[in-house]
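explain this.
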Amino acid sequence: MSEGMKLGLGADHRGAASAKQLYARLVALGHRVDTFSSLTGETCDYPIPAYQVGSAIAAGTIERGILICGTGIGMCIAANKVPGVRAALAHDELTAEISRTHNDANVLCLSADLLGQRLIEKLVETFLATPFQGGRHARRLEEIAVIEAGRDPATTRA
């Protein structure tokens, strides 16, 4: 895993306990981690940390983001509304890896209710260590950017 990444971590109340443990692990590995929610378990609507982490990605103040809620679905939907965010929901090592190699995901969304802490940490390690493959996948990212700009990617091909 690459050391010293600048990360953003956010959670709602259902993901707070997992995020708190993950925070300690990431810091121990040498990462700089900004938190974008309370990790105490206080009630928190998931769109708020999703927007905050997404905005930090878009602004370039963090390299990658990690969001944890009950299922990961709400965080993923909300984060993907921020232009420039490519948030991916992962439930196993393969989806965490493919989110990076094929999609250059910059935000990983996880389920606190469905995944154990050990698996959450393994998925994050995979997400952080895996590079983007480029090649044919780069063209697809360009098409996603076209969609973000409000245009049909099928009409932009030469």
